Prior knowledge:
Elements: H1 14-20, E1 23-27, H2 32-43, E2 47-54, H3 60-73, E3 78-81, H4 88-91, H5 97-115, E4 120-122, H6 135-143, H7 148-151, H8 156-165, H9 191-205, E5 213-216, E6 220-224, H10 230-235, H11 237-244, E7 250-253
Parallel strand pairs: 1-2, 1-4, 2-3, 6-7
Antiparallel strand pairs: 5-6
Amino acid sequence: MLCIGVAVPSKSSLEAFFKDNHRVAIGFSGGVDSSYLVHVAASERADALPVFIKTPFIRDSEQRDAEEFCRRRGIRMEVVDIDLYSDESVVSNGPDRCYHCKRAMFERVIEVARENGCDVVADGTNASDPVDDRPGVRALRELGIRSPLRDSDLSKSAIRRISRMDRLETWNKQSNSCLATRIETGVRITPDLIGRVAASEDAVAALGFSGIRVRTDGRSAKVQFTKSQIADARARADEIKEAVAPYFDDVTIDDKVRDD
């Protein structure tokens, strides 16, 4: 039987978590947090199974990074496809879209966990992530998903620092949230729109920028940069607009910046 939903004491170490919960399925994205979680599980010789959920909203490069991380360490990773375009509660893109998306994804992780004899399902939510009003976190709670990084009081900055000390290649990897987050609430999510968002971000990245986001209402686009890049972006605004123009009618530089 899959045992989920039992709280971990807030100051418990990750090592203790994996000693107490030896057979764990981990919702694995290949990002900083879940990669560190998989690393600790391997270090503790836990019988952990990273599960990568492949959706239309995740770039193929993210799957390649996740597979390479596991390959280097001799860790078996399960890849599971999920067709979110067939889920009306997701593609209608209402205020709770993230809730429905996260729930669909982790329901599948739970299925994989059961199929592989795992007793616990965990994710990479950390202590820096806001939890009170996030629809995705609500879905995790309802499903009883464990968040040992958060429960061990490990913040994003701490995870990056420890990952660097442990020589993990992911220590400075930039966040790559799903492409659906770029689309304004209420605007229907379609393969065409997701494709245009991805292509426009790739076009800006080809100019030498990184960690950018192209936000859209379906017609116009705002290109969002990190704090360290915004001055350069404003100086090269015409060049950036030209790169994105094939995909959106109206292109502007977003005044709101992202943290580096």
